[in-house]
Amino acid sequence: MLLSEHPGETVPKASGNANKSQSIYRFWSNEKVKKTQILASHREGVVRRCVEAGVVLAIQDTTDLEYTTHEATKDLGYINQTPQQGIKVHSCIAVSSKGEPLGMLHQQSWTRKQRSGKKKERKKKPIQEKESYRWLQTAKGAEEGLAEKIQLIHVADREADIFELFAQKRSANSELLIRGEYNRRVKEEMGYLLPMIEQGSILGTMTINLERNPKRRARQATLQIRGMRVTLEVPHASPQTSQSPSSGN
Question: 246 versus 17: which is more confidently predicted?
């Protein structure tokens, strides 16, 4: 019985019996087996399904594996709160334009060490020395074997609002769809991104249902979709001051 046939089950339930479960655990514990090898085998099928889909969303995000209470587990790092120990995992899932999951395009994991130095000093480090570099690595890794074959749209939350990611070279058929975090400087007359967007043409609207929470009643909200082309200025605080402005919609 293949684990892929029952991805939502525990190993004992998916394997069917104790002997098969033990074989799976031995396989995972074998130091000769590398996670990159397992992912590479899986990725062959993912690439094939992506090519068949034609238009693919490459959605990336980070999750925490928390093992604080697993006292026998070694080499863990802190997560969000210092007492919590575990592993950080950053994954990129391929999804078709119809919402069908196609598989894992890229994944990396690491353990955090205690940060040293002031936040202001850490900001001066090159992007390659920052944890946020994972967004750039994942975007590049997701395109391997897919360049020019499909239309690939990288999707990420506001943590990926990174100028170096916008400026990074991508394949001709790939785009970025990033939730904004900063009101960035632009070369256009308005000077900043948000005022520019407010002047953009309305391309469409959509209605969503907002669930009730302690601060609001349940209601419907109508969202406006606006678009325009702008050129982002290189941030003043960027260590890579030689970078050129980045254009985008």
Answer: 17
